């Protein structure tokens, strides 16, 4: 009589999600240090933007936090793909775009306030816009795709909720950006640093939900038969 016997995933596959969550935790710690230690970053978290940390004495901590988030997101992308949760090529591309745009934000610093506009600053601006939008799009689309699956309904619901909750915080950035850069207008940016930080908290929470979702989706990678 033939019966299936599960094959345990390889050690590398089992470490994808723990590695991603560890990277996210490290990034959160570094961001907390930047917000609490005024010697590293003498910035007002209510009025100054997150990108201003790249111009502070603690800029290396900021860069490492972005690199950890990007690397952890890449591991999470592989885990979600291998476990069948993110099989849609468009979703894979959007998640990869989130990873790449985070790298660009780390590599290309913003222009100082009131300074000359440089190519580096423009790249940073465009990369920041993509970063803010790409992850909520992934979270919403992934949740919508699995909303009727009884196994994943709870994860899908939270994924959609967090993604939709982040969008209102994104609008104060994208509307002036579209008017000023795309349409050539002169609309002032009304968003504050507090708005951006609230959006960051929602996106970190979304990453945590996706990570736990990928962890719960771990299943045997294949089966073999035996007598």
UniProtKB/TrEMBL annotation:
Key words, A-Z: Membrane, Transmembrane, Transmembrane helix
TM spans (from-to): 15-36, 61-81, 90-108, 123-142, 162-183, 195-214
Pfam families for this protein: DUF998
Zinc found in the keyword field: no
Top-level taxon in the UniProt lineage: Bacteria
The name this protein goes by in its record: DUF998 domain-containing protein
Keyword flag Membrane: yes
Organism, as annotated: Amycolatopsis melonis
């Amino acid at each position: 009589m033939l019966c299936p016997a599960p094959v345990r995933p390889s050690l590398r596959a089992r470490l994808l999600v723990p590695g991603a969550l560890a990277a996210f935790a490290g990034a959160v710690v570094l961001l907390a240090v930047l917000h609490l230690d005024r010697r590293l970053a003498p910035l007002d978290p209510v009025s100054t933007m997150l990108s201003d940390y790249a111009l502070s004495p603690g800029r290396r901590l900021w860069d490492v936090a972005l690199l950890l988030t990007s690397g952890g997101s890449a591991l999470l992308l592989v885990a979600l793909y291998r476990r069948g949760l993110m099989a849609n090529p468009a979703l894979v591309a959007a998640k990869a775009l989130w990873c790449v745009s985070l790298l660009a934000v780390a590599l290309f610093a913003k222009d100082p306030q009131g300074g000359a506009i440089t190519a580096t600053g423009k790249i940073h601006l465009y990369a920041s816009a993509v970063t803010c939008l790409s992850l909520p799009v992934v979270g919403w689309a992934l949740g919508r795709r699995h909303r009727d699956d009884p196994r994943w309904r709870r994860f899908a619901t939270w994924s959609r909720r967090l993604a939709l909750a982040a969008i209102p915080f994104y609008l104060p950035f994208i509307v002036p950006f579209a008017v000023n850069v795309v349409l050539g207008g002169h609309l002032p940016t009304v968003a504050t640093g507090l708005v951006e930080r609230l959006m960051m908290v929602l996106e970190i929470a979304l990453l945590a939900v996706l990570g736990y979702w990928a962890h719960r989706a771990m299943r045997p990678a294949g089966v073999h038969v035996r007598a």
